[in-house]
Amino acid sequence: MELKSTIIFQKNHQALQGPERFIVNEGGSRSSKTYSLCQLVIVYCLQNKGKVVSIIRKTFPALRATVLRDFTEILKDLGIYSLEAHNKSEQIYTFPNGSMVEFFSVDDEQKIRGRKRDIAWCNEANELYFDDFTQLNMRTEHKLIFDYNPSDNSSWLYELPPDDTVLIRSTYKDNPFLPQSIRNQIEDLKRTDEALYQIYALGQKAVSKSNIYSNWTFMTHRPARFTSYVYGLDFGYNHPTALMRVYWHERDIFIEPVIYESYLTTTMLIEKMGQLNIEKEVTILADYARPEIIAEMVNSGYDVINANKVVKKGIDYVKTFGVYCMENKDIKREYDNYKWKKIGDHITDEPVKLFDDAMDAVRYAVTYIKDEYFTDSAYVSF
Predict the structure, then answer these.
(1) What is the C-alpha separation between 126 and 157, in angstroms, rounded?
(2) What span, in angstroms and rounded, lies between the C-alpha atoms of 367 and 3?
(3) Is residue 44 helix, strand or coil?
(4) Which of 249, 267, 240 is nearest to 258 (CA)?
(5) Interior CA angle at 207 toward 377 and 225, to 5°?
(6) Nearest C-alpha neighbor of 153 from the set 57, 219, 239, 218
(7) Is 91 left (phi over 0), alpha (psi -120 to 50) or beta?
(8) Exposure letters 77-112 (e unless 16+ CB within 10 A, then b)
């Protein structure tokens, strides 16, 4: 059997024989990651009897359109595909020696929490949550393989134990079978979007020009110098209600998430604030779009006032501070995904109305801090 492969297949094949549990494929677009890992799974199943390999992605339609299609194509090119061996209703392919490959998405609770497997391959693994990884890790006997484009600035993938992880980086230049026309498209990203060029051509993490904030420092504890604070409060229901405690000291702020929770009624919110001992004498800057909630909070004794909601002004104020934030996965997700709206190639001064609940609450608090406690708070647009 003749297998045309790239250096990425060879590196993964070598890693599969090694002692490390995690094999991480981080790289750019069209670097042969997916195709090479399909080849690796097929070779592994042919060489080992009675093994179970699970291939997982966040959603099944995406998995079917990518990995499953490549997997089937490779079997057919090798002349070993059998329609009888392919259970399309369960999406399981069984080899003559009893080894099998199953394809499923993480929302298939029965399979993700079901029987054990020898190898798990998480395709586009940065789409998965840490809880998804935890469930798969507990039920995988031998190796876990991940592939992804490094489009996120923070991820559980970056925190895997280095002494038990093989990291394989790749770019389109590692794929000798890639047509020149595709190479040209990837290389043209350098002209049109430097951040996308770094991610999809060079396979490196990058902060997009459309990201609103950068250079925040996430910490596991609050430094002692931060003692003065106010609260910012953004109301939600389906979206989370976000209550952020925002400290300031000289030219730095520290953000401490207090409440970040969906489906809170006004009564539930006030009860939770009581349980958390939120001080009634400390000012809370709140979204005045919900005056009825503010009125109930004031009646309960809290010092709630209307926030200044001028968006660009507030964002520019935040950028005048060094920003430190308590480690929190929800806030990190918002920070990484809080972006300016784009119209075509033009970046506007308006944020995308997603991933902005905590960001709005922080903005309310910082605008108040800047206007109340800093004498040089004249508004300057960056």
Answers:
(1) 7
(2) 61
(3) helix
(4) 240
(5) 45
(6) 218
(7) left
(8) eeeeeeeeebeeeebebbbeeebbbbbbbbeeeebb
Q: Which CATH architecture has domain 217-373?
A: 2-Layer Sandwich (3.30)
The domain limits of the chain are 7-175, 217-373
- CA max distance for the chain: 78
- Alpha-carbon 68 to chain mean position: 24
pLDDT of 147-190, one tens digit each? 998 877 668 899 999 999 999 999 999 999 999 988 988 888 77
Q: In the β-sheet with 22-27, what is the strand arrangement from edge to edge? A: 86-87, 92-94, 100-105, 52-57, 117-122, 140-148, 22-27, 165-170
**Measuring CA to CA, which residue among 39, 43, 44 is closest to residue 25?**
39
Q: Rounded to the nearest 5°, which phi and psi values hold at 334?
A: -65, -45
Q: How confident is the model at residue 350 (pLDDT cuts 50, 70, 90)?
A: confident
- pTM comes to 0.59
DSSP 302-313: --EEE----HHH
What fold does the segment set 7-175 form as a domain?
Answer: Rossmann fold (3.40.50)
- Amino acid sitting at position 317: Y
Q: Tokens 């996430």 label which residue? A: 218
Amino acid at position 364, single letter: Y
Dihedral, CA of residue 337, residue 340, residue 341 and residue 342, to nearest 10: -100
Three-state DSSP class for 332?
Answer: helix
Q: Average pLDDT in the 114-135 region?
A: 92
Half-sphere exposure of 379 (CA within 13 A, CB side): 11
pLDDT of residue 113: 77
Burial of 56 (0-12, 13-18, 19+ CB in 10 A): buried
Strand-by-strand arrangement of the 252-261 sheet: 217-219, 322-326, 252-261, 241-249, 228-234, 284-286, 304-306
pLDDT reported for residue 77: 95
**Is the Cβ–Cβ distance between 283 and 306 less than 8 Å?**
no
**Cα 240 from Cα 361, distance rounded (Å):** 11
Tell me how crowded residue 116 is: count the other CB atoms within 10 A of its CB: 12
